[in-house]
Amino acid sequence: MMKWRKYAKHHKKLILWIIIFLAILAISIFLFHRHADEINLTTKTTTPSSSSTTATTKPSQAVFDKNQYSLNVSSSLWVVVNKGRVLPSNYVPAGLRVFGSSGMNLGAEAANALQQLFNGATNAGLDLMLSSGYRSYNTQVGLYNSYVASYGQASADTFSAKAGHSEHQTGLAADLAPTSRQCELDVCFGNLPEGKWLAANAYKYGFIIRYPADKTQITGYQYEPWHVRYVGTNLSNEMHKTGITTLEEFFGLPAYTSYPASSYELQ
Ligand SMILES: [Zn+2]
């Protein structure tokens, strides 16, 4: 003890310097670590921020899964039928049911959704009716042929589908009209309060206006404000949100304005 005191007394300055040195060392180690952490932190935030689109948009906008349903299976909720994509001639959807008092059939899920849509229209003071629902392959053969006979094929092709190419064969499509039948199957339906309401609200019930006015070069059909296609609210909401109005554009499928030499055959 005595020895240490003596030693300390003699080397007071030296000890002081050692303490100062250690203090500086400790402070610099502390600062270095903090700085290193900062660097880490910034690299951590900057590396993903260079791809910040994914980092910032991912949580808010959960990526929409475009593979939830097949586009190629006739019975699929998302089946895409157009001039280049044909349903089997013997395809009849399972579970068709008569819609209300119309005497016409629709797929069960589409029928339920359409009833909801009609209720929504009624609540808005408007009344809609089903003008055409499910149509069999053979019904479409007759319908198309009669249009071709009356208007010629070129004209008929702008508003009527060849058998197998009609969405009505899926049981998911419906032609709607006011109960007054004013502008039934006519473009003027789009200007009626019923047509405007339908255009603004169909998506809430899982439907899309399948042949929009500005997409005739995509769909291959004239504007049909009365023709709705049931796709489910998951997809109709997404299409509404993204502003993509056709199935062809939404799913990146080829557009057909006329019938190709050979169509893609749906399963
Ligand atoms: Zn139709």
Describe this structure in words.
With 267 residues, this protein is α+β, with helices and mostly antiparallel strands. It has two domains: 2-57; 85-265, Muramoyl-pentapeptide Carboxypeptidase, domain 2, CATH 3.30.1380. The chain is 45% helix and 10% strand. The protein has helices spanning 2-10, 12-50, 52-60, 108-123, 137-151, 153-156, 193-201, 216-219, 233-242, 247-251; strands at residues 85-86, 96-98, 105-107, 128-132, 173-178, 207-209, 227-230, 264-265. It has a four-stranded antiparallel beta sheet with strand order 4-5-7-6. Strands 1-8 form a two-stranded parallel sheet. Helix 2 (12-50) crosses helix 3. Zinc ion binds at residues 132, 168, 173, 175, 227. Residues 132, 168, 173, 175, 227 line the site of zinc ion (ZN).
Number of strand elements: 8
Radius of gyration: 34 Å
Head-to-tail CA distance between termini: 97 Å
Rough outline: elongated
Helix-strand string: HHHEEEHEHHEHEHEHHE
What bound compounds does this protein have?
zinc ion
- Estimate the helix proportion, in percent: 40-55%
Provide the CATH top-level class of the largest domain.
Alpha Beta
What strand order characterises the main sheet? 4-5-7-6
Q: Tell me the β content.
A: 5-15%
Annotated CATH topology of the largest domain: Muramoyl-pentapeptide Carboxypeptidase, domain 2
**What is the total number of structural domains?**
2
CATH architecture of the largest domain: 2-Layer Sandwich
Global structural class: alpha+beta
Q: Mean pLDDT score, rounded? A: 87
Q: Work out the helix count.
A: 10
Low-pLDDT runs? 36-58
Mind describing the biggest β-sheet?
Answer: 4 strands, antiparallel
